[in-house]
């Protein structure tokens, strides 16, 4: 299996301070991988580098195919309609690739609100728009930055269902970046733990969720219930 | 009564010029967060070139379009210098546009001299509701109205317009979806330049232009734009028209010396009210 995302020995510095230090990370085709870590561990920096919005100091990033981002905090175009938000997700595709019909088939909850301003939507609806907008780019791999942040558990469950569907039925590779480690480890087969700009741990999610270092730091000190 | 109609139509004609300059400021500010103080220079350059082209024997229409194209080109050049270097703050860019506006004086005086210039527009006198006014004022309105309709359509219904609005709405998200925000900023500068150029070309037949006419235009255009917090082109249109009418009424009934003061008082009032209500207009985004 080849990696759809291959990160090797990545170093990123902000005005002297090292944000990421020697990161190795792989997401294989049709794989769902979690990246967990505390605030300030460097997760968002990694997302920015992966999306090409930030230049690394050294190291290599190889993305086979197209990478699309669901950014932290949803990052809507608040004054634009849901449909315009989606359309702009296909900006790189050219005119014909900006038809939004397929997205409403995939995410039917968006159809009734397509004309509403994105800024007037609930957090869960905005997250759905953000996913739809990322899908408009017709990605091979989706980087989801903080899917659950600030959302009610039921809303998160619905979003997770959609994400799982896209992964299993559409074969989309996913890199899920989450503060909610329990959610991420339950959803993904493999996971990385980022601490202070370094990969502290990585391996099968099931093993990590029993690792005392993970349970103490990220799962509230309780050992995860075996599945 | 006929006096009033005459003042209103004349005021709308003059106000259309302010509205065009103001909406040019808005077009640039929305996308780049830069207040472009070279905006008035686009109008002067366009008007000067049009007078030269007409003097060289080019027909009406062609010469005016030439002026507007020069405005757009000047806008693009100002944009490249003001925001071309990545990481330039909007405050720094503002100072750059101010400097370029002054530099434009030198270029204008060098090429066209320091004497007022004008060129004929639509000749003759129109009679509307008993009021007699130069027919050219009606042409100004007849051109400005469709320009604003096309702009509204462009920003809301075309993907390029949506992308410009997206940069205005959320710059980071625009980058996330792959929009080149710097290129969009340059496009906004070119649009602003064209709108400024159009203002100069349209109003010069009824108001002579000199190299420093940009001061009147920028003060009034800024007053119009600031009504909508520098982000709403249609409010800039309404503001510009209102200013034009208010000034013409003040001049007609009160005396011609206070035209600029009307704009300044209106601008200060709006800024004070807005500052009290929503905090200051953000200088950086």
Structure, briefly:
Chain A is an alpha/beta fold and 227 residues long. Chain A has helices at residues 43-50, 82-89, 101-106, 123-135, 153-170, 181-187, 205-208, 212-218; strands at 3-14, 17-28, 32-37, 58-63, 67-70, 141-145, 173-178, 190-195, 198-204.
Word description of this protein:
Chain A is an alpha/beta fold and 227 residues long. In chain A, helix 2 runs parallel beside helix 4. Chain A is built from 8 helices and 9 strands. A 6-stranded mixed β-sheet of chain A has the order 5-6-7-3-8-9, sandwiched between helices. Chain A has a 3-stranded antiparallel β-sheet with strand order 2-1-4, with helices on one face. Chain B is mainly alpha-helical and 285 residues long. Helices cover 74% and strands 3% of the residues of chain B. Chain B contains 11 helices and 2 strands; from the N terminus they run ααααββααααααα. A two-stranded antiparallel ribbon of chain B has the order 1-2. Chain B starts with a helix and ends in a 7-residue tail after the last helix. The mean pLDDT of chain B is 91. Classes of the chains: A alpha/beta (227), B mainly alpha (285). Chains A and B meet through helix 2 of A and helix 6 and helix 7 of B.
Summarize the topology:
The complex is a heterodimer of chains A (227) and B (285).
Chain A: E1 3-14, E2 17-28, E3 32-37, H1 43-50, E4 58-63, E5 67-70, H2 82-89, H3 101-106, H4 123-135, E6 141-145, H5 153-170, E7 173-178, H6 181-187, E8 190-195, E9 198-204, H7 205-208, H8 212-218
Parallel strand pairs in A: 3-7, 3-8, 5-6, 6-7
Antiparallel strand pairs in A: 1-2, 1-4, 8-9
Chain B: H1 2-32, H2 39-55, H3 62-83, H4 90-112, E1 125-128, E2 131-134, H5 136-157, H6 159-169, H7 171-176, H8 181-203, H9 214-227, H10 233-254, H11 259-278
Antiparallel strand pairs in B: 1-2
Pfam families (chain A): ABC_tran
GO molecular function (chain A): ATP binding
InterPro entries (chain A): AAA+_ATPase, ABC_transporter-like_ATP-bd, ABC_transporter-like_CS, BCAA_Transport_ATP-bd_LivF, P-loop_NTPase
């Amino acid at each position: 299996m080849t990696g759809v995302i291959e990160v090797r020995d990545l170093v990123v510095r902000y005005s002297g301070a090292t944000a990421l230090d020697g990161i190795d990370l792989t997401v294989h085709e049709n794989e769902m991988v979690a990246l967990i870590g505390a605030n300030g561990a460097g997760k968002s920096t990694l997302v920015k580098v992966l999306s090409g919005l930030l230049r690394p100091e050294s190291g290599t990033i190889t993305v086979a195919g197209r990478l699309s981002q669901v950014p932290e905090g949803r990052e809507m175009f608040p004054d634009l309609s849901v449909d315009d938000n989606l359309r702009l997700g296909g900006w790189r595709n050219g005119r014909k690739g900006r038809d939004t019909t397929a997205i409403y088939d995939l995410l039917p909850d968006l159809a009734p609100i397509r004309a509403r301003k994105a800024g007037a939507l609930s957090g869960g609806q905005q997250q759905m728009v953000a996913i739809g907008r990322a899908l408009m780019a017709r990605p091979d791999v989706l980087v989801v930055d903080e899917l659950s942040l600030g959302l009610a558990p039921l809303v998160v469950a619905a979003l997770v269902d959609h994400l799982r569907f896209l992964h299993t039925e559409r074969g989309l590779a996913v890199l899920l970046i989450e503060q909610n480690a329990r959610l991420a480890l339950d959803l993904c087969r493999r996971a990385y733990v980022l601490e202070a700009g370094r990969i502290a741990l990585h391996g099968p999610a099931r093993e990590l969720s029993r690792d005392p270092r993970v349970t103490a730091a990220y799962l509230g000190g309780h050992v995860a219930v075996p599945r | 009564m006929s006096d009033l109609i005459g003042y209103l139509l004349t005021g709308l004609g003059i106000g259309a010029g302010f509205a065009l300059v103001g909406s040019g400021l808005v077009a640039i500010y929305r996308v780049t967060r830069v207040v472009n103080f070279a905006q008035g220079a686009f109008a002067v350059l366009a008007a000067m070139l049009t007078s030269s082209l007409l003097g060289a024997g080019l027909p009406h229409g062609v010469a005016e379009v030439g002026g507007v194209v020069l405005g757009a080109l000047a806008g693009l050049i100002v944009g490249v210098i003001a925001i071309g270097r990545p990481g330039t703050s909007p405050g720094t860019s503002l100072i750059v546009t101010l400097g370029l506006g002054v530099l434009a004086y030198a270029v204008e005086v060098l090429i066209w001299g320091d004497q007022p210039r004008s060129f004929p527009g639509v000749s003759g006198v129109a009679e509307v509701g008993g009021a007699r006014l130069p027919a050219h004022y009606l042409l100004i309105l007849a051109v400005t109205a469709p320009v604003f309709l096309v702009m509204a359509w462009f920003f809301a219904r075309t993907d390029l317009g949506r992308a410009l609005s997206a940069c205005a709405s959320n710059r980071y998200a625009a980058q996330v979806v792959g929009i080149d925000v710097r290129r969009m900023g340059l496009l906004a500068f070119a649009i602003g330049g064209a709108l400024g150029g159009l203002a100069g070309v349209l109003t010069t037949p009824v108001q002579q232009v000199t190299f420093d006419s940009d001061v009147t235009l920028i003060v009034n255009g800024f007053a119009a734009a600031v009504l909508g917090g520098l982000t709403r082109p249609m409010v800039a249109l309404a503001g510009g028209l209102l200013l034009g009418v208010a000034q013409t009424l003040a001049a007609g009934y009160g005396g011609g010396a206070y035209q600029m003061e009307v704009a300044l008082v209106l601008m200060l009032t709006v800024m004070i009210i807005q500052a009290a209500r929503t905090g200051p207009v953000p200088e950086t985004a």
